[in-house]
Structure formats: C-alpha cells, structure tokens
Amino acid sequence: KRIPLVLARSMSDGPGRWYLEENCAIEHYAVCEIFPDGNFPEGLGPLLFQEGGIMKVATGEQLDRIRAEEPEIVMKAIRAYPWFQVQKTVSSVARQFVTYHPIDVNFDRLLFYDAEGTIRVTKPVLAHSPPVRTVDTLAHIFVPLSALLLLISLPLMRRGNLPVVLLCVLGVAANMAICATFSAVAARYGMRVLWMVPLLTMIYSLVPFRQPT
Fold it and tell me: Under the phi-then-psi rule, with left for phi > 0, alpha for psi from -120 to 50, and beta for the rest, what region is 38?
C-alpha cells in the first residue's frame, strides 16, 4: 500500500506527465481516470497530497491499479525521454548534496481536525527562530570545511580507518542519490546524514594519521 511516489516524481519532473499526455487515450491507465482532462497538477506535493491530488481523490481500487501500473509508466517515460531524465536526475542529486538547511525545518506545527473531520496542519510560527538560524549558519560553515579536511586527510589516514570512512561516505552519497532520484530534493534528506561528515572528520582527521613506527 505504498504511496506512488516514483510515478509522481516522474510526472512532476516532466517525462511521466508528457508520456501520459500522449498515451492516456490509448492505454487507459488508472491515473488517467483521476485526471480525465489531462490537467495534471504541477509539482510533487500538489500531484499527490493536495486537494484534487491522487491520494485525495483516488479510490482504493484505483490506487491499487496505480501501484501496479507505476513501473510500466515510469520505464516507458524514461525510454521516451532518456536524455532529459538523465539531466534531471544528475541535477537533482547535485542539488541534494548542498540542500541541508535546518532553517527549512519547522518545529512548532500542530495537527488538528477541521469542522469536516479532515486532518490539518497549523502554519509554522517559529521557523526562523534564533537557535534555528544559528544551527543553519554553523552547518553551512562546518560541513563544507569538514568535507574538505576529510578529503585532504584520506592519503594520510591509517590503513585500518580508511575503509570505515569510505563506507560512511558511500552511505551518505547513496542516501542523497536515492532520495533525490526517487523522492524529491529536500533539506531533511541531507540533514539526516550530513552530520556524519563533521563526525568522521573529528574522529579520523583530527588524530595522528600515521601508523606508529
């Protein structure tokens, strides 16, 4: 019962939407039934979660069909627009590596039911409070500096430490690539792993590099 996030991402990027606009009349996909006029919302959020989006208006049967048809639509869209998809993916991954703004995270939202019984979320009030701005500034200073120092330290690092560092760096890179490709470019995806870069620097770069003689 997953959310059809990959399909929505393909549509919001362009290829998925273009493919459906060209083939809805022929293929009769479930997502075409939800938007019979072909007027697909722009953006991942509106397409999935806002009023008129897939998760708001699709029936259970339609959602099951959308999930089943998702791989076919996405793969056909990639084959139809391969170069554009490659460019979009590379651009998204690159932007994800520099998107880790704590200032984008809101800490004071509340969930509540409106008069119709629908769950709503209050608007943030303290999104730009001094502590958040301070953390945001420090993150944008120390993460790049730590990454640079870690890179410089690699040739001098103890042999036993190098695989650990490389494995952690690979994990950070994989997180960025997967999230940016299959979900969206969002600060929370970067923030949850980039703290490892200063940590690795403190553990493995700010200690003696050479094996004891």
Answer: left
